[in-house]
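Hi, here's the filled form for the chain we discussed.

Project: internal
Contact: R.S.
Residues: 763
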Amino acid sequence: MKNALILSALLTLGPVCFAQQTEKYPLGNYEELTDTKPHDGAEVWNKMTTPTCLSWGTTDIRYKKLNVPDIKKTTRWQGKAWKGERINAQAVLWTKEALDDVTVTVSELKSGSAVIPASAITTNFVRYVMTDELNKDRKGGCGHRENKAEWDSSVVADVLDIVKIQDIKACTTQPIWLNVWVPSDARAGKYKGTLTVSGKNFQDMKLQVEIDVLNRTLPAPQDWAFHLDLWQNPYSVARYYQVPLWSKEHFDAMLPIMKMLANAGQRAITTSIMHKPWAGQTEDHFDSMVTRIKKIDGTWVYSYDVFDKWVEFMMNEVGIKDMISCYTMIPWALTFDYYDEATSRVQFINVKPGDAEYTEYWGSFLKDFSRHLRKKGWFEKTAISMDERPMEAMREAIKVIKQADPEFKITLAGNYHPEIQSDLYYLSIPYGHKFPENVKAERERKGQISTVYTCCSEAFPNTFTFSDPAEATWTALHAIAGGYDGYLRWAVNSWTADPLRDSRFRTWAAGDTYSIYPGPRSSIRFERLVEGIQDCEKIRILREELAAKGAKGKLNKLNKAVAKFTPEGLSETQQSAAEMVNELNKEMDVDKYKIRSWSKDDFSTLAKYLNNKKIWDNCRDSLPYPYSEDDAQQFILFVSSQNEQNNYCIEVNQEAAGNISFARGIDVERYNAELGYWLAEPYWGKGIMTQMLALAISCYFHHTDVMRICANVYAGNIASMRVLEKIGFRKCGIHRNACFKNGVFTDCHYFELLKEEFRNLVK
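And the returned structure, exactly as it came back:
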């Protein structure tokens, strides 16, 4: 297939390193590098009983390109998600024959009349990139390595490609990534659909997709409490896309890349306020986004044109607005540039914090910078940022900042220093380090941010291209386990020379410098990191909820599982990152019972449990008895056709076991609704109905304009009366001999609950 999506004509910039490469900077289709590692030969591939196979796999494995995968074949994938959550799955296609023009499609997912549209579903061919395995010795991935022979290189699955049609070579494994972003307004229920793999020279192959959408909602990424700080490199984008810096083409290229970051919950904008703040350690060094000019008379003037363009773009077009991080007053090399009008040249000074010339250079700038930021309305969200430098140097820099404007925020990514921590609005400390408990509490009280970071130093966990996928999830979960506010990593798109094909870098372990690829293309590790961040939000929500309910047992169990995601917890377990993450996901499923929409597949269990005389005795005679499967199907068909959800299925242990209904009044009583409910007899007396009613009423009040709910309970049904009273209903009276049931008259106890009363109860 021919390459596509080329933004501009290619420039001849030097010799091509690999014969397979057809473009120096591909954006469309491209040839992967050859894997020289031993792999399955023809004798293994020829043992396949069918020429081509398709099965669901797991997102915990990077499947090898040239090996027959060790998979227990399954055609149905079952996932579970909150509303608003991104959920991933991985299918695997392997073939001993060449396949032409392969495409992947997914139908919309349906639960009764509810739909997750195809627009919320993304599929990607997983592509292979060269990696190095520099931390095999578990000693980390830092250090300069010019000799590529030392890199122990191989290709690994990581890139989630944007090209939707692929030719697949014979004796090849091709993973397929599935991502579903469940709409926040989706109905709870089991959604089903089909993934189809098609091509020119083979029959369509299909897999079943099933997602159980829980009656819980994850906030939008911009509302997450988790403080994510992945450093951006706009200069890499200009080089790779071959567009002029800060041109319209440059911003157009950056927009989808940075949107991916915003959708992961990014909080900070990375800006450079000096030339090469990190000594040009990446393929594309950072220039200063501020121009400094020293006038002939010795005064200073500053241009913020580039800085303003970048910040306005990230805030207004991308949607990242919380913090502007400005690097750095203490670079790795203490060399500072400016344009000198007297010589008409760019000049450099070599000074250190504490020197008079350093104080003058930075003090003058910071005073003017403060003025500019206040004029733009950005001062409160801007921080002067540093990474780990000598202690005395940082103290001197802080002194200069405070002298220029004592209200400047200051951030640091580095070791914890008690001498300066109170000056730091935002402090990110390395993995394995801790804040003293009293200090962390004081920082929280002051509204200061305290996060953790990983870099090339950590052998495990990490987000290198050779890291197990679950390590990215583990890393995010460590933040909440360690009591941090979030996570920092030094680069998300500091691309190597050939990032789509080769993630190796001369200084750092492969993949250390980026997790989003050109295109833009996501990666297995980026998606798994987002999973971990979502899990952190879910844990925060569950902790608050369980504490409010007084569910100490469930809360303690959850906290115990979370606590393992620390260096100490890791040393005590023999589990892999994947095992730990999967185990925690089970513990987060605190709801063995829940409410959801009714599904057409529920008819048999509905009939089984509702065909019960004890239940019928406490219901109106309009409920059929005996209750058949035909009755159940008619009921489900009816409730599925309603525009307003007024029936909620109670699911217990993954089967339909009850119902909660709301019947709206008419005319002047149209803002009223009558409540009805029943639960399968095996689950009586377990407190299930109390919790489910509270959830259903909360949902119903939230999604409708109903202001009052009433309920009628037959005399003698004391358990039902207690349930209503527990969730705030007030008994208003007794209607004597109001109902005729089973051949006798019986009193009816009347209860009511106002929306405002319920709101006050659940605050």
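Let me know if anything looks off before we file it.
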